[in-house]
Backbone:
């Protein structure tokens, strides 16, 4: 086995090579870059590390993500410290004037950090709409806060289900008895019982889902084990089933928001609107447990809705299956007919303002030929008169912009396998300005972290072995890991498309 110093040097060489390639790629990139950043904490010495990742669509219209920094951040982890780490990274990679958005978790420190970035560190003229769309709140984190609010209400109703799991995983002999009872009932016991984590609502959902599959096993054991006194009543099993059914919606939507291999910004609007409409249905439920849970979740939902609905609406327009019609369909259900008119116009105005901003940055083309200079005086004079005649005949003609024409076209069929990136790639000649807009907006991730860690309200954890590494080595290791996964994903993509 080679020494650890050899491995360390190999990792650093991979890091330097990857950094050079990434730097060249970003330098040649013609689109804007979206940033996600998240705070991680080591589990033994509580040292903080910040991960900064760049997301963009390359010239071949492939969605890419690259870790730019995985850096140690000294305490205190306040807005100034985090802002300094982020701005130093942007300056190092020369990205401060090429940003589209920054996606962060929704906490007071991140809110203060984003305000400092906009007010003091970055030039608003370099940002989209003077920074109006710059701050994106992590959708998965918002959903976590909403669900946690509902779980506070229903915690007592699933307590016996939770206690049953705790009882039967309490010793190896009980685990064996549980598995034996499952075999006697011909129930597959592939999944082991797991106790849920209070700060991870998805673990509560998965626990309830698994326990419902083993309901008959719990009942059989309650008849034979006199020490098992926490068997749930029929009402508690019914409550667990109701709650599990409701949480399934949030579980799948959070998984979709946390994807990194496909655009998530265009999915944001419809999914969040569906959640709002479902919560309003649950509030009217005859089941008081579900009604109370939904009421608590709605209050938390309304707290964040106004902060995200404009960005969500603008991004949804760039899905040619929905365009503005999706906004016009959902907002009356959310606000009511009267208020919805102003909200729809607000989204439309932001979209047209953004279009004008992109259009103004494209240099104007001059079609006049210098060959006219050699034409006689009389011919030039007549052609000038002709130009004035044509201009006067167009006075009453309303010029339609690319965005107008795009929105007026028929919607595409709602096929699940639709690839929005491929569509915009092939429609660049028809909508060149919109294509540039779509390339930037569709690259924006609406979640900061992968699905599993998005549910947790506790600190992100790094293993003790990693936390003892030198920060530079740790950063190199993380980048090398990302490089390896990118290679694996590229190999899988080529294999699935028939390439050698």
Residues:
């Amino acid at each position: 086995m080679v020494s650890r110093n050899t491995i360390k040097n190999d990792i650093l060489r991979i890091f330097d090579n990857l950094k050079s390639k990434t730097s060249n790629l970003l330098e040649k990139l013609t689109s804007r870059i979206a940033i996600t950043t998240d705070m991680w904490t080591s589990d033994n010495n509580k040292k903080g590390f910040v991960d900064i990742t760049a997301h963009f669509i390359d010239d071949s219209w492939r969605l890419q993500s690259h870790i730019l920094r995985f850096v140690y951040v000294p305490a205190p982890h306040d807005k100034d410290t985090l802002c300094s780490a982020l701005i130093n990274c942007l300056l190092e990679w020369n990205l401060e004037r090429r940003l589209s958005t920054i996606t962060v978790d929704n906490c007071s420190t991140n809110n203060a950090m984003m305000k400092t970035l906009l007010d003091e560190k970055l030039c608003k003229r370099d940002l989209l709409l003077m920074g109006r769309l710059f701050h994106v709140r992590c959708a998965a984190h918002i959903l976590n806060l909403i669900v946690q609010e509902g779980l506070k209400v229903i915690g007592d109703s699933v307590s016996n289900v939770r206690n049953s799991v705790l009882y039967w995983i309490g010793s190896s002999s009980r685990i064996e008895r549980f598995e034996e009872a499952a075999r006697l009932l011909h129930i597959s016991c592939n999944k082991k019982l797991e106790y849920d984590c209070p700060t991870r609502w998805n673990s509560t959902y998965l626990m309830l889902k698994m326990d419902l599959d083993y309901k008959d096993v719990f009942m059989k054991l309650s008849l034979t084990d006199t020490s098992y006194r926490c068997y749930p009543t029929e009402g508690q099993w019914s409550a667990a089933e109701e709650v599990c059914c409701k949480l399934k919606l949030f579980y799948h939507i959070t998984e979709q928001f946390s994807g990194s291999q496909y655009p998530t910004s265009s999915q944001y609007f419809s999914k969040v609107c569906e959640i709002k409409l479902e919560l309003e249905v649950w509030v009217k439920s005859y089941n008081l447990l579900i009604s109370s849970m939904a009421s608590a979740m709605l209050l938390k939902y309304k707290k964040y809705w106004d902060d995200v609905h404009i960005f969500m609406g603008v991004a949804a327009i760039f899905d040619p299956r929905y365009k503005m019609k999706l906004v016009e369909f959902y907002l009356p259900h959310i606000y009511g007919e009267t208020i919805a008119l102003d909200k729809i116009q607000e989204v439309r105005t932001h979209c047209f303002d953004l279009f004008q901003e992109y259009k103004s940055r494209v240099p104007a083309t001059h079609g006049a030929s210098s060959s006219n200079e050699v034409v006689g005086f009389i011919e030039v004079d007549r052609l000038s008169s002709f130009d004035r005649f044509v201009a006067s005949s167009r006075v009453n003609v309303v010029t339609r912009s690319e965005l107008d024409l795009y929105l007026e076209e028929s919607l595409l069929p709602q096929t699940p396998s639709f690839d929005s990136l491929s569509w915009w790639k092939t429609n660049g000649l028809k909508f060149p300005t919109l294509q540039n807009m779509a390339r930037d907006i569709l690259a924006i991730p609406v979640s900061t972290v992968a699905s599993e860690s998005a549910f947790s309200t506790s600190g992100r954890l790094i293993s003790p072995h990693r936390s003892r590494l030198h920060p530079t080595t740790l950063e190199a290791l993380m980048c090398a890991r990302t490089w390896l996964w990118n290679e694996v994903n590229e190999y899988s993509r080529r294999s699935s498309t028939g390439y050698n």
